[in-house]
Amino acid sequence: MAIRSLNRRTxxxxxxxxxxxxPTLEIMLNRxxxxxxxxxxxxxxxxxxxxxxxxxxxxGDPLRDLYRxxxxxxxYDLKAATMxxxxxxxxxxxxxxxxxxxxxxxxxxxxxxxxxxxxxxLPPLLCGVSNPDDSSTCRGPTAxxxxxxxxxxxxTFESLQYQVQPSWYLTDSAxxxxxxxxYRSDGAGGVVQVPGQTSPRAAYMALFTGFVPPxxxxxxxxxxxxxxxxxxxxxxxxxxxxxxxxxxAADKIRMQxxxxxxxxxxxxxxxxxxxxxxxxxxxxxxxxxxxxGGNNASAGGDGFDVNAGYSDEDTRARIFSDLIHMAFTCDxxxxxxxxxxxxxxxxxxxxxxGIPYDQHEVGHSVGTTEAVSQILAWQLDQFAYLVAKLRDxxxxxxxxxxxxxxxxxxxxxxxxxxxxxxxxxxxSTENMIVTVAGRAGGFVSGQHIxxxxxxxxxxxxxxxxxxxxxxxxxxxxxxxxxxx
Length: 484
Hints:
The protein has 484 residues and is of the alpha/beta class. The chain has a domain at 42-211 and 311-466: Alkaline Phosphatase, subunit A, CATH 3.40.720. Helices cover 28% and strands 14% of the residues. It contains 13 helices and 16 strands. It has an 8-stranded mixed β-sheet, with helices on both faces. Strands 1-2 form a two-stranded antiparallel sheet. A hairpin with a 5-residue loop joins strand 1 and strand 2. The longest helix has 23 residues, at 369-391.
């Protein structure tokens, strides 16, 4: 016999406090499928912000980029860098591209920077506050934290931060803040960094054991069971068996898909050994080294070790995307920040481009927009994968993507380098591009939109408005026309 109603916050609980949150089922919604049952409010909205340490073109190449479509409006054409939008059943109708954006420099306006590109231009992009002295640290909270404070109350994780590139990869330097995407208020007028989780397995454990019991013996049992790699589904099997016969036909199909996705994610995680971090030390595999690529002494060319500087970021990005999909689908979190590659990224790109350089150096030493576009295409494919996962997950009368606003930022554009006065450079915040997806709050999908020289943060402001956060980020005021 089917049950008549089910609370949106229902969890299937198992051994030692392990729990599985449920997706939005028909029995949790009103009869129109567009709000929660019993006057509990609308279906929740979600916010995603991603970042790649990448410019749009190569030094000295007058070809600005191979990313911008030829014309503004719908049904835009795809270039070398954006061809992955045709993947996964074609996500182009779900994705908008905003070009002709810029961040002002020489301290010339709100959200501006000075002349040290990799350190100086990053904070205004992330938090919308000017950076007059080229520090790498934001002077205000980032969008994921602003959104989390506004709409994250009551969720298991007010916000989540994930980091795909787990290491700096260069022997003679350090990231100095180029590995931080999220900053939160310290409550006293300042901010503190919120580092991203670099271990997919630790992130998985946290997502499914956010209900750790206070009893130390029960908490230890959770650790023991996960260390043995027992399936989370096995740990809640009894509750699954009791719930499924009570659901209607459509909800049974939805739940079985949910369980299949969890099982597939477990299989992917089991295929890679854990990172050597304290958060996941309980998962140590005797004799197996963590798959963290070693550092390189050079940035490319002669002496570049094509077997170092890469930690299978492709697989890591997929797993983190699967986790984000699960977090949004189960309403475990409504705000996620994902640093795919660090600013001035020294990740080895040889495995997917055939170019023996790190990501950053391709723009300088190879110096062609065509070469840079191979990297951009790899990066955009990761975003398209997550977009498709959310698009293909039903939620009430729509999909999870329909209740989400997603923003993908790139570190730079292609144009004037204010430090040297040279044109057609990667160290430039001219001609920047931001890619967005989702339809929450009327967010516009499937368009190429003219940014008209506005700040990339105006796009972020628009995404925040789309999820119901009526505020601006830092000093940059207003939204982008045509995006909502």
